[in-house]
Structure formats: structure tokens, C-alpha cells
Amino acid sequence: MIPVLDLKREYQELKDEIDAAVSRVLASGGFVGGAEVEALEGELAAYLEVPHIITLGSGTDALFIALRAMGLGPGDEVITSPFTFIATIEAIQHVGATPVLVDIDPQTFNLDPQGLGAALTPRTRAILPVHLYGQAAPMQAIVEFAQAHRLSVLEDAAQAIGARYCSQGAGPAWQRVGTIGMAGAFSLYPTKNLGAYGDAGFIATRSPAIAEESRLIASHGQAARYHHVRPAGYTSRLDALQAAILRVKLPHLEAWNARRRAIAHAYSEGLKGVVQTPYEAPYALHIFHQYTIRHPQRDRLAEHLKARGIGSSVHYPLPAHLQPAYRDLAPEGSLPEAERAAREVLSLPMHPFLEEAQLEAVLEAVRSFG
Ligand SMILES: *Cc1c(COP(=O)(O)O)cnc(C)c1O
Question: Looking at the structure, do residues 143 and 118 belong to the same domain, yes or no?
């Protein structure tokens, strides 16, 4: 079986360093926050070229806490994509705000900025674009719309650590995604391109005010120990063990993302004219968290691959508004591109340790689908 992801293989590659890092933390007696976490925050800040990193318990917490730190609350509307992992929607609801869904661009699977105008109401306060599969959303159009209507922008960069975005025209060249809006929310869930060995996430921001507010919220609203300056505080912090493990992995991230890009390139060459391969927008440096093809007979193709020992997965089989819990967000048929994508997408095995022979086997199996 060729799995979609191989985390055992990754651990084998780094075993000595990771085991040493874990032993170091166990011997230190400090398990939440502390020196390892501070060091990781500094290293992530350098990697992402952003001044403030706030590590947290998960990517979902990063979304929720960033929205709260940005002042979003009941009565506010937040525009986002229906074609995402459900945490994007949950975070908006957790601050008491209302998600407003805008359909996706079928080429990139990201929020289509042409839909923003129709979604705008007097209650709109923010846009939450998702950099799906590791490819930047069209940030220039989103940020310009946000500026014109005085909206905040929070990026869901959970799948896109290390991806870059290049604004067309006058803006800065090739910024890291998650550092373009007011804040970016990242996940360090084990399956993400940089994964902890458990739940973890962080907020990146250029705003000292959002950074400070996020730290307050994530630690019981306390400014100093046992001095609580914000009501309804929360607890979401990174374990020292996870920080030490992530510090071993972070120096490999650029090479791992480059390897993913090389695999994606080989897949796309080998599948030209066979299936619809991913589109890399001219403004995006895609890091291929997922390599996702489209096929009108997606389920049959997945069965065909399985019978040949090739793993695959569907991200996502339902858009948010067709989930049983979220039927009230939008009627069926109103977001046709997201609905069609959910029927057609299939993600192929993609991780930095995929071998040439495995890659060839995947290509062979997809090509033999009649
Ligand atoms: C993984 C993911 C999240 C949530 O991150 P967790 O660390 O699992 O809480 C949010 N949004 C998207 C798009 C994701 O892929």
C-alpha cells in the first residue's frame, strides 16, 4: 500500500534528534511554555519574516483567538469560503459572529473575490480567506476590497506554512502567506507540512496589539500571574515537548516543501491530458499540502486506485453549507463551484518521503483508469 502520508518514515529519518529533544524536555521539568516554546516562537518569526508569533494548542484555537483579538463578536459577519476544513466556520461561530459564504474559483479552489461584493452587508466586519491545499488565496483583490470597506482580514494559513504570495503591481514580492492580512492562523497538526506529535498551532501577526491581546486571551486573560484583566479568558498553550520536536523539524521545512513541489511537478507532467491536475496561480508559490486532482467519476477513480494499492483521500466530501450542522448557512445549489468541487476532488499520496518508484506506481495506476 502506498499511503497518502507517511509519518513513521519521517520519525525514522529524525529519530536521534527527536529522541534527544524529548529527553531534554523531560529532564528539564518544564512542560507548558518556557524556554523551548520561546525559542520556537523566535525561529518561526524568523522563518515567516513576521515580528510576532503566539503559539497555541491548535490551529482551531489560532483562528478563534485571532478573531477575538481582532474584536469580532456577536452581530458581526465574517466572509469566508464554504470549501474548507470545518474549523474555519467553527471559529467564526465561537466568537458569536456569523459566517457568510462566498463561492470558490474552480481553478484554485480558493475564495473567488468576484463574489465579495454580493456578500457585503452593513454588518460585514472581516474576511477570512483560506489558503487551501497550500496555495495562496488571491490576497491583493481581497485586501483591496477589505481596505475599501474597512474590513479586517484574517488568513487561514493552516495548510500553507512556507507558501508565498506575490502581489501584482506595486506591492512587496513573494511574502509568506499568513503574514499579509492583520493576522494569520496556522495549524501544526501532525499531518500538516510542519506537524507536531499532537495538537498545536499559532498566530502570526505584524500588529503588537493583536499579539498582546491574543496572549492575554490564550492564558486566562492574565496580564501577570493571577491578575486577570480580560473576562471569559481561555487556555490554549503549546507544550514544551511539542516545541522541542517542532524545533528539530522546522529547519527541514524548506527542503520538504521543495520536495513536495518536485513531486507535484512530476505528477502533473505524468498526468497531462489524463485528469485535471492542480493549477498554480502566477501569484502563488504552492507548497502542495495536498496534491488534488479533479475527476467527474471521483469515487470510481478512488476505488480503482485502492484496488491497486494506492491511497487517496477527499478534501472535502461536503462543502460547509451541506454539512448536517450547517444547513442554515446557505441553500443547496447556491454555491455551485464548491458543491461541484466536493464531488470531483481527489488527493493523491503527497509527502516529502515519497520515493520515485512509488511516484511511478501512482502515475501508472491513475493512467490505467478507463
Ligand atoms: C487543519 C486545519 C485547521 C485546524 O487546525 P487544527 O490544528 O486541526 O485545529 C483549520 N483550517 C484548515 C483549513 C485546516 O486545514
Answer: yes
Residues of the domain holding 339: 253-367
pLDDT (tens place) for every residue of the chain, 370 residues total:
999 999 999 999 999 999 999 999 999 999 999 999 999 999 999 999 999 999 999 999 999 999 999 999 999 999 999 999 999 999 999 999 999 999 999 999 999 999 999 999 999 999 999 999 999 999 999 999 999 999 999 999 999 999 999 987 666 789 999 999 999 999 999 999 999 999 999 999 999 999 999 999 999 999 999 999 999 999 999 999 999 999 999 999 999 999 999 999 999 999 999 999 999 999 999 999 999 999 999 999 999 999 999 999 999 999 999 999 999 999 999 999 999 999 999 999 999 999 999 999 999 999 999 7
What is the residue with the minimal CA distance to atom 5 of ligand 1?
Answer: 59
The C-alpha atoms of residue 111 and residue 299 are separated, in whole angstroms, by: 25
Task: Choose the residue to mutate in 60, 81, 135, 239 for probing ligand 1, maximizing ligand atoms within 8 Å of C-beta.
Answer: 60
pTM of the full predicted structure?
0.98
- The residue with cell 486506485 is 305
Does residue 149 sit in the same domain as residue 136? yes
CB of 201 within 6 A of ligand 1: the answer is yes
309's torsion region: left (phi>0), alpha (psi -120 to 50) or beta?
left
**Distance from the alpha carbon of residue 156 to the mean position of ligand 1, in angstroms:** 8
Statement to judge: residues 211 and 306 lie in one domain:
no
Nearest partner of 356 among 274, 243, 270, 291, judged by Cα: 270
Quick check: is 180 in a domain? Answer: yes
Q: Indicate the angle between helix axes 59-69 and 87-94, nearest 10 degrees.
A: 40
Q: Whose CA is nearest to atom 13 of ligand 1?
A: 85
Q: What are the catalytic residues? A: 192
195 lines ligand 1 (CB under 6 A): no
Distance (Å, whole) CA 138 – CA 305? 33
2 domain residue, yes or no: no
Mark which of 250, 279, 314 sits at the end of a domain.
250
**Looking at the structure, do residues 311 and 268 belong to the same domain, yes or no?**
yes
Whether 1 maps to a domain, the answer reads no
Residue 172 CA to ligand 1 center (angstroms) comes to: 27
How far, in Å, are 41, 56, 68, 131, 211 from residue 218 at the CA level? Answer: 15, 7, 11, 24, 11
- Is residue 270 located within the same domain as residue 243? no
CA–centroid distance, residue 370 to ligand 1 (Å): 35
Atom of ligand 1 minimally distant from the CA of 289: 15
